[in-house]
Structure to design on (215 residues):
């Protein structure tokens, strides 16, 4: 086993989040989890601390930051994000708290159709976003604002963005790798595995890459 670390996971009761915390616990790490629905987290482990709370209220989670080695955010609220950039507001609250406590490593999971600052989506992906994935536009705008903020105002932190092409639950379809231009439709467990490996990868710091199955 690798050296025991402490993970703080936001969105832990989501489908990717649940796979992520299960993996971190299996690897022998400690996990602090914030969840709107703690009842969805059925794991029982002495290494797991679960707290009910919301990202829009720092009083629910700020004291979980000190001592964390890695912070992971796997957040999504499609209906709320149609009108409010809740993830951007959260990250703007989180980053100063991380600085105050000397926590530097942060992985944010975005959607694969969210545009990286300074780059364009391919015509195919843009067409897909504007048609089939149109109902997720609010989430894409929120994710893009998070990426701009991290790029422009958080260069002192070791952040990374996973632009995930999440499809559905199910068994693993293989190993995802970091890619600047290829996106695979992946299972929740494979996206969790990728994010687990990536948050500990110094080579991924300050990147906004997608993930693609190994060829």
């Amino acid at each position: 086993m690798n050296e025991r670390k402490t993970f703080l996971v936001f969105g832990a009761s989501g489908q990717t989040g649940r796979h992520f915390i299960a993996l971190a616990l299996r690897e022998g790490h400690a996990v602090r989890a914030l969840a709107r629905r703690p009842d969805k987290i059925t794991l029982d482990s002495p290494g797991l601390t679960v707290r009910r709370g919301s990202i829009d209220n720092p009083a629910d989670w700020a004291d979980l930051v000190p001592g964390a080695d890695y912070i992971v955010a796997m957040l999504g609220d499609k209906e709320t994000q149609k009108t409010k950039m809740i993830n951007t507001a959260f990250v703007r609250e989180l980053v100063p708290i991380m600085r105050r406590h000397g926590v530097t490593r942060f992985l944010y999971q975005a959607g694969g159709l969210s545009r990286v600052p300074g780059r364009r989506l391919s015509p195919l992906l843009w067409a897909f976003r504007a048609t089939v994935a149109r109902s997720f536009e609010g989430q894409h705008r929120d994710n893009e604002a998070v990426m701009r903020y991290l790029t422009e105002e958080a260069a002192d932190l070791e952040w990374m963005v996973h632009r995930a092409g999440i499809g559905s639950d199910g068994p693993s379809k293989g190993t995802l790798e970091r890619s600047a231009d290829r996106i695979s439709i992946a299972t929740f467990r494979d996206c969790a595995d990728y994010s687990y490996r990536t948050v500990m990868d110094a080579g991924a710091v300050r990147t906004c890459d997608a993930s693609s199955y190994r060829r």
The first helix runs from residue 15 to 26.
